[in-house]
Structure formats: C-alpha cells, structure tokens
Amino acid sequence: MTQPGRPDLEMSASHSTDAPTAPSSPPPSGSAVMRTYGRAELAFVRGEGCWLITEDGTRYLDCASGIAVNTLGHSHPRLVAALRDQAGKLWHTSNLYRVPGQERVAARLAELTGLDQVYFCNSGAEANESAVKIARRAMHERGEPERMTILCATGSFHGRTLGMLAATDKPANRTGFGPMPDGFEHVAFGNLNALRDQMGPHVAAVMIEPVQGEGGARDAQDDYLRGVRAAADEFGALVIADEVQCGIGRTGTLFAYETSGIRPDIIAVAKGLGGGFPVGAVIATQTVGSAMTPGTHGSTFAGNPLAMAVAEVVLDELGTPGFLADVRRRAGILRDALRAVADRHAGAVVEIRGRGFLCGVRLADHLPAGDAVAAMRDEHLLMVPAGENTVRFLPPLVISEAEIATAVEGFERVLGRMVAAQDG
After folding, report:
1. Domain that residue 267 falls in
2. 166 within domain boundaries
3. Pairwise CA distance, residues 361 & 376, whole Å
C-alpha cells in the first residue's frame, strides 16, 4: 500500500507538535501571526508520501499527519489531480444552488453509515457544533424542547468554538472567554453507571468520541458504546459519535464506532475526510435530519466543489478492496513494536493506547510527553502530544512497514536519552 514518490528511508525521520501548550519559540521578528499556537521552529515547503521537507531539503517522517488529517499522505497523485482538475472548472457557488459533488459525497456517506442525510461544513469544530444544533432541534420538533442538555465525557475534546469549549472537558481552555453556553454536562469516560445517573428528561443527546484523541488516545471500548446506545434508547436521547479524529479509516475501520455494532443517530466527521483540504460533515438519520429546514443552519463555503472533489478521492481510496484491512495489519505492527519498546523500558512507558493509527504511548509522569515530542524533532520525526502525558502516533494511513520501523526506532532513541538523563 505504498505511495509513488515516497523518499528513501535513508533520508530519515523527526518530529513536530501542533498543540498550543507545546514547547515553543517566539514568532519571527515582525510576524503578524497571532500567537494562538506554540509553533516549532520548522517550516515545510513540500511533502511526499509520509515525509515533509524543509526549504533546505531536510526530510521529516510525518507521524502527526497535520493532526490526523493527511489520510493519504502528502501530494497523493489522485488528490493532486482531482484538485487541479476541479480548480480549472469551478471553485465556489455557495449553497444557494445545487452542488453535484455534494450530492455524490452525501450519497456515499449515507450508504457507508446506513444513515440518511448529510450536512457539509468546513472543520471538526463546525461539525460538532452542527451536530449539537441538529440534536436539539430534533428534540424541539419532537415536542420535547426541554431536552437541551448534551452529556459529554471527561477527557473529551470537541473543538474551540464557544459551544464546543463548553462541551470539551478542559477547563483551562475556557479561561478568559466569559460565561460558557448552558446545556453541557460531563460524565466519567467509560463509566456506564455515571452516565445512567445523569440521564433524564433534560438530555437531548450523549456525545462521545469512540477513541479520544486529544484526551490521550483512550479507547471507549465496544461494550461501553453498546451501553451508551442502550441508555440513550431507554431514556429517549440521541447518540452523537464524534468521529472527527478517529474516523475516516484512522482506527482501521471507516468509522471507529463500527466495531461495536451500534448505529449513532448523528455522526460528526472532518479532518481526514479531505485528506488535507478543509471539509467536514454531519451525517444523521432521516428522523433527526428532517428537523433541519431552510434557514435553520448554513455555511457560505461548506461543501464547495473543491472540497467535494478531494473527499470523493479519499472515500474511493479507502474503499479500495483490502485497504482498511492492510491499515489494521500495519497498525498491529506499530502496536507490537511499541509494546516491545515498553518492555525494554520498564517504568518509562505506562501504557500503549488507542486503536489503529490513532496510537498513544502514555509516558511516566517524570518523562513529559511534550519534551519527548520536541526531542523527536532532532530525530527528524514528527509526532503530537496529548492528554495524560501521552505521545500520539498519527501517521498517514499509507505509512509503510519500513517507515513504521524508522519511527519506532527514533522514538526509542529519544526515550532512552530521556531515561538516561533522569537517571543521571
């Protein structure tokens, strides 16, 4: 499953971080870029497969994928061709008119999920915000307007709009932004008893990430998801699956919830759907989606012809026979290799987490994950930190076995140096 044009592995590996809390340097003198990110001192001008390349030709093995975005790697020939072809025809018309590409992609997503209707947007935060609006509107149309509360999990991350700050279980993100919107409550992740205790006639929906990304690559487990579905049905609530980070093949199935056998009422996707081009979507059942009528929601740019052209290619590639099975196989190789590293560094690695290529290594508290991610840049290896002192491996789904070995070897070198420094 390799991609044409992938550089030789001798040109080697390194790391970067995209988290606002990561170690950072000031922006260049005179930069007008607002400091909402702690950016690494790296600038890339080109990408090939799983590699990013700086202006001076230095190559970095990208196991961050733009934070789980570059599904098919960089400069995938089919994505490039689709975007160039569409760019020469039509960029934007708005949603005042039919967009044929939307109709094709929506039909594909509906068929793949067994749901019925799709609303397009531009990002994961928008997808989750839209999912909440749809859930509340559905309850209003059902004659239960008092059902406005969305139950979210501890450790969750759903985005950075004001609404999604309230949904996200990270109080530090809310500092300085005034009162949060009402209607969001948090329950212990993975705890069905806690969930059931907070269910009631005020709850519109339970919003859950089947595998938490920013929360530390924590897998909700299939039994828990089945319990969430059962509790929601019992109490008359909906289930929203936030698949923004864990969806679109990243865990080895098209959507992470699939292995549980449940069917959510609403699914939010983004990140990997465009393979690097901004696009998000909300997929809903007919009963829920029909609550949205002209004027209830909208977006100027959403689902434009460029976005739909690349989304079609991503879905085509993931639907190639054997593609996702091979993702699962190679992800198993990564997990086995990381377990071997953990065995060789007892006391340094607490747990190997996640699923597929949303894989996390939780480090011991005395070995900060942010420091590890920064040090891996010296190995020409790009990774991303996450909650609970976790390093995330989020490579493109086309990463080869040889590249996996390169990434794990670089990570182990960094881990060994960090352990030695602590011991010294």
Report:
1. 90-318
2. yes
3. 14
pLDDT at residue 30 in the model: 66
Low-confidence ranges of the chain (pLDDT < 70): 1-30
Number of C-beta neighbours around residue 4 at 10 A: 9
Cβ neighbors of 229 (< 8 A, separation 6 or more) are 239, 260, 262, 263, 264
Burial track 245-267 (b if 16+ CB lie within 10 A, e otherwise):
bbbbbbbbbbbbbbbbebebbbb
d(CA 117, CA 352): 37
Cα–Cα distance for residue pair 167/165, rounded to 1 Å:
5
Asked if residue 48 is part of any domain, the answer here is no
Whether 341 contacts 349, CB under 8 Å = yes
In a domain? residue 387: no
What integer pLDDT is reported at residue 99 of this predicted model?
Answer: 96
The CATH number of the domain holding residue 282 is: 3.40.640.10
Q: How far apart are CA 51 and CA 250, in angstroms?
A: 18
Type of residue at 93: T
Strand, helix or coil for residue 130: helix
Nearest residue to 40 (alpha-carbon basis) of 413, 376, 387: 376
Token couple for 264: 């959510």
pLDDT at 23: 43
| Number of domains making up the chain | 1
Is 68 within the bounds of a domain? Answer: no
